[in-house]
Amino acid sequence: MNIILLGPPGAGKGTQARRLVEERGMVQLSTGDMLREARTSGTEMGKRVAAVMDAGELVTDEIVIGLIDEKIHAGSEGGFIFDGFPRTLAQADALAELLTKNYTTLDAVVEMRVDDQALVKRITGRYTCGDCGEVYHDDTKPTKVEGTCDTCGSTNLKRRADDNEESLKTRLMEYYKKTSPLIGYYYAKGDLKPVNGLQEVDAVAREIAQALG
Ligand code: AP5
Ligand code: ZN
């Protein structure tokens, strides 16, 4: 099964993707994570996209489509979770082509609905483990021991450079302008499954499980 998690910054895409990986053995393809990895490893592409990401703007379609192409080609038995991709109509068309080329299909698009006020709170309180990728929040999901990851024991906890109110404003504008048209695009294809992302994490996970069947 291949699915897209579609939603604004902070909607909980990464959080739910990690659960689907654990529960269903699917492979998470987060273009945000791939781009951050490219930055950390200092590749030429990583250097080029750094300022764009920190400002909250979208990087070019060509770059992200290239990243996804490689991964789909490698294949996955449990299927893919596309997290943060596609984000433009051009990316959505490219994904359809790539899936066809690799003899597979898209099964569902989970649209995670969360209002802007909640998104600001989620983004400004978020931190992640730099070693295992576990996602935390100052208020709703702090680590049990301050400064130490519950999952892997690492003390390498980080905040993202684009998780500030200024960049978030741009990220939201980019979402409404370039990504939200995908809601209508997938609705017209009959693939859209809207989910109330404002509930607590377990309740959102249950609604997604129901939607996927
Ligand atoms: P990306 O990394 O994809 O960021 P994003 O879409 O802005 O999404 P986030 O990772 O911020 O949020 P999320 O929905 O995963 O929420 P999370 O689960 O962490 O992209 C970053 C940048 O890369 C882009 O701005 C762009 O520059 C570039 N980029 C990436 N993909 C691209 C593409 N395809 N095309 C062009 N450019 C691209 O949760 C957030 C917080 O809320 C956490 O603290 C979590 O603990 C908490 N939380 C989660 N669920 C709940 C809940 N149900 N209740 C309460 N708290 C919750
Ligand atoms: Zn960890």
UniProtKB/TrEMBL annotation:
Positions that bind ATP: 10-15, 126, 135-136, 199
Molecular function terms from GO: kinase activity
InterPro entries given in the database record: Adenyl_kin_sub, Adenylat/UMP-CMP_kin, Adenylat_kinase_CS, Adenylate_kinase_lid-dom, P-loop_NTPase
Keyword vocabulary terms for this entry: ATP-binding, Cytoplasm, Kinase, Metal-binding, Nucleotide biosynthesis, Nucleotide-binding, Transferase, Zinc
UniProt catalytic activity: AMP + ATP = 2 ADP
Renumbered residue ranges of the record's region NMP: 30-59
Cellular localisation: Cytoplasm
Residues that, per the record, bind AMP: 31, 36, 57-59, 84-87, 91, 160, 171
Adenylate kinase active site lid domain residues: 126-162
Pfam families reported in the protein's UniProt record: ADK, ADK_lid
EC number from the UniProt entry: 2.7.4.3
CDD domains given in the database record: ADK
Pathway of action: Purine metabolism; AMP biosynthesis via salvage pathway; AMP from ADP: step 1/1
Residues annotated as binding Zn(2+): 129, 132, 149, 152
Keyword Cytoplasm assigned: yes
Keyword field contains Kinase: yes
Quaternary organization: Monomer.
Role summary: Catalyzes the reversible transfer of the terminal phosphate group between ATP and AMP. Plays an important role in cellular energy homeostasis and in adenine nucleotide metabolism.
Free-text note on domains in this protein's UniProt record: Consists of three domains, a large central CORE domain and two small peripheral domains, NMPbind and LID, which undergo movements during catalysis. The LID domain closes over the site of phosphoryl transfer upon ATP binding. Assembling and dissambling the active center during each catalytic cycle provides an effective means to prevent ATP hydrolysis. Some bacteria have evolved a zinc-coordinating structure that stabilizes the LID domain.
Similarity-based family: Belongs to the adenylate kinase family.
Name assigned to this protein: Adenylate kinase
